[in-house]
């Protein structure tokens, strides 16, 4: 039976079929889900109001560890999939204890989520309409697909790529990277006030924007562009200190 | 009730138990009044502004963020005073007016007090606030730093210096 | 011994803020030193002056406070009642309304004496109220759980031409203590427009000593160099010595350090 599950999982990664070693928890009364991981993390949507962690191919527990629990910086494995899940008030804290394997996490599309990668993990988030905070603190990249915002994302060395659906106008969007490229796609009719800035990189866009550097006066903070598109709207600020910036019409 | 801290009471107030504000009024209205009186040298004004401070406590109770209650209250008091002076286009440190007012208006005030008021009026407004607030024992250096937007260490050194200056002005004036 | 005057400890001693050993040392010195003794006597006299009872506020203050409180309570009560049970106690609420009208009248009569000078201020008052509301909104947004909302709070700074110290301080706290890098960066950008303020300068210098995000580090360095802040040299040198400081930050510091030292 175990072997069967193993093969099934490997073949149908990402299908909704619930495998034996998946972990679920109800999200009643939860406003924020915070995910903390050293390795790759993929967050997708599903229709149930619960947290679902798929750990991919079955976790191999060393024979010696039989009957023991995995313990990591974030706590003890209380899920049997290598995660520690703790509720703190209206926040659910999900901590990936394993150091070398990615995981897929499923949440309802309207959930507010905050994902942090502390080592090499890449963050990939797809299809959410709630608020998103993503922080790749070291080498990881961030990829947010088909999101609505508000988004707050920051990466150090990895690239930051965001593809927006219709942009929520309620609260600002902030996308920063120190050494990585910032690559953002917006529907062409998005009303917004844009603030783009880079120190050592270049800005490329097919939106109609102009750098407001005065003739011959080089701005101290590198290149700064402030402009509104489609009559102005929610504030979107993007900044890359050393990388290039790409702003595309979708 | 005695055992509840200001912060705990204010917390309950912001949750809707308005009656508890009376306790905070009892505990602090004299301090606020005194602060405003010493700052302005004007009874009527001090009373109006004290009232204003407590109105604001009622009105903005939901914005109380669980920090030090004294800091919050005195920050409101400072703002009210500042607003009053900007609104009336009077410079904050109109020395002559303030000191004469203090001396002339107060028939019932001891001579010592008038001299103290005079000495206070000789200080910079910032220093004056600092030293007056410092003389309320409940306000610790941490609170004071928070109210004045500085660090406890810097505030402490400064207070020490102003006290000395104030004392010398006072001794010269009598 | 005489050289080690204890002037600076006098206020703490009088307020009872010295710990036991400091207190003993203080008392020992004061016994031998006439200068300090004199200083202490004078300071004590000054402290006593502050303690002297100044005239207390009139009872009008308490009356007006209590009537304002009652009024607020009835406002609050009405909201509760509307959403509450249908079978409300009619006589009870009628009494409440009557009572609040009585209080209003009383408050008005007491207030009318002082009404005159207030009238001309009404418009200014309104303006002020709006500012106060904005300030309150801004400060409370900055405490929100959501990073985006905190950024929104920080961005409110554009609404104020001359933000007062409380706002500047709240922004400085965001720059220094917010866990989210984007919020700290936004707070920095907001504060950079007020870099002539001492509070802002000090916050920048403090932030440079503890900030881990290189993008924010380099932005702070540039702002401090632009205003030629000499005190920035120390934290910059420290960053040069640190192993985990990014190379481009070190290059930047090496390039600008001569211009401020």
Automatic annotation (TrEMBL), chain A:
Residues 1-19 form the signal peptide. Keywords: Signal. The keyword Signal applies. It comes from the Bacteria. The keyword Signal applies. This is DUF4097 family beta strand repeat protein.
TrEMBL record, chain B:
Gene3D superfamilies: 1.10.1740.10, Winged helix-like DNA-binding domain superfamily/Winged helix DNA-binding domain (1.10.10.10). Residues 24-88 form the RNA polymerase sigma-70 region domain. Residues 116-166 form the RNA polymerase sigma factor 70 region 4 type domain. The keyword Zinc-finger does not apply. It comes from the Bacteria. Signal peptide: none annotated. Keywords: DNA-binding, Sigma factor, Transcription, Transcription regulation. CDD domains: Sigma70_r4 (cd06171). Belongs to the sigma-70 factor family. ECF subfamily. This is RNA polymerase sigma factor.
From TrEMBL, chain C:
InterPro entries: Anti_sigma_zinc_sf (IPR041916), ARM-like (IPR011989), ARM-type_fold (IPR016024), Znf_put (IPR027383). Residues 7-37 form the Putative zinc-finger domain. It comes from the Bacteria. It holds the Pfam family zf-HC2. SUPFAM superfamilies: ARM repeat. This is HEAT repeat domain-containing protein.
């Amino acid at each position: 039976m175990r072997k069967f599950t193993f093969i099934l999982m490997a073949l149908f990664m990402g299908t909704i079929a619930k495998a034996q070693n998946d972990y679920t928890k109800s999200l009643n009364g939860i406003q924020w889900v915070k995910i903390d991981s050293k390795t790759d993390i993929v967050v997708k949507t599903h229709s149930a109001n619960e947290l679902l962690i798929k750990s991919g191919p079955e976790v191999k527990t060393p024979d010696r560890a039989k009957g023991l629990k995995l313990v990591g910086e974030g706590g003890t494995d209380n899920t049997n999939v290598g995660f520690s899940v703790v509720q703190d008030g209206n926040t659910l804290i999900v901590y990936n204890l394993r150091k070398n394997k990615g995981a897929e996490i499923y949440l309802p599309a309207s959930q507010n989520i905050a994902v942090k990668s502390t080592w090499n993990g890449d963050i990939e988030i797809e299809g959410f309409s709630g608020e998103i905070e993503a922080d790749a603190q070291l080498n990881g990249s961030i990829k947010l697909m088909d999101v609505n915002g508000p988004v707050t994302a920051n990466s150090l060395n990895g690239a930051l790529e965001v593809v927006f659906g219709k942009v929520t106008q309620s609260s600002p969007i902030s996308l920063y990277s120190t050494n990585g490229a910032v690559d953002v796609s917006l529907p062409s009719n998005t009303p917004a006030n844009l603030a783009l800035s880079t120190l050592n990189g270049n800005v490329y866009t097919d939106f109609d924007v102009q750098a407001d550097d005065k003739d011959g006066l080089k701005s101290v903070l590198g290149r700064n562009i402030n402009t509104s598109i489609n009559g102005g709207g929610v504030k979107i600020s993007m900044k890359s200190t050393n990388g290039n910036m790409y702003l595309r019409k979708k | 009730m005695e055992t509840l801290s200001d912060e705990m009471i204010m917390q309950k107030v912001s949750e809707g138990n308005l009656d508890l504000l009376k306790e905070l009024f009892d505990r602090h209205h004299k301090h606020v009044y005194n602060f405003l009186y010493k700052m302005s040298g004007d009874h009527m004004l001090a009373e109006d502004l004290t009232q204003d401070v407590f109105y604001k406590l009622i009105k903005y109770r939901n914005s109380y963020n669980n920090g030090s209650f004294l800091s919050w209250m005195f920050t409101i008091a400072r703002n009210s005073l500042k607003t009053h002076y900007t609104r009336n286009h009077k410079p904050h440190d109109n020395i002559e007016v303030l000191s004469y007012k203090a001396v002339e208006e107060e028939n019932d005030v001891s001579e010592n007090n008038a001299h103290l008021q005079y000495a206070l009026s000789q200080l910079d407004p910032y220093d004056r606030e600092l030293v007056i607030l410092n003389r309320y024992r409940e306000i610790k250096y941490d609170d004071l730093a928070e109210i004045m937007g500085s660090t406890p260490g810097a505030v402490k050194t400064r207070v020490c210096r102003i006290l000395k200056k104030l004392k010398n002005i006072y001794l010269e004036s009598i | 011994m005489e050289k080690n005057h204890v002037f600076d400890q006098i206020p703490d001693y009088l307020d009872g803020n010295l710990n036991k050993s400091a207190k003993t040392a203080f008392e020992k010195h004061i016994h031998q030193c006439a200068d300090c003794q004199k200083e202490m006597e004078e300071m004590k006299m000054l402290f006593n002056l502050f303690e002297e009872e100044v005239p207390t506020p009139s009872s009008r203050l308490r009356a007006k406070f209590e009537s304002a409180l009652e009024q607020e309570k009835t406002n609050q009560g009405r909201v509760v009642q509307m959403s509450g049970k249908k079978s409300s106690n009619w006589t009870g609420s009628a009494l409440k309304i009557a009572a609040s009208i009585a209080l209003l009248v009383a408050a008005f009569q007491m207030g009318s004496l002082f009404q005159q000078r207030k009238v001309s201020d009404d418009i200014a008052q309104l303006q002020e109220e709006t500012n106060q509301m904005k300030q309150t909104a801004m400060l409370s947004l900055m405490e929100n759980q959501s990073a985006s909302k905190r950024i929104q709070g920080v961005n409110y700074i554009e609404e104020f031409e001359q933000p007062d110290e409380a706002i500047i301080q709240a922004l400085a706290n965001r720059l220094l203590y917010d866990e989210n890098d984007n919020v700290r960066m936004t707070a920095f950008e907001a504060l950079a427009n007020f870099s002539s303020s001492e509070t802002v300068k000090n916050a920048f210098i403090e932030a440079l000593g503890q900030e881990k995000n290189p993008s924010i580090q380099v932005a702070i360095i540039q702002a401090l160099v632009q205003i030629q802040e000499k005190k920035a040299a120390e934290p910059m040198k420290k960053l040069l010595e640190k192993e985990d400081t990014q190379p481009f930050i070190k290059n930047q510091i090496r390039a600008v350090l001569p211009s401020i030292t």
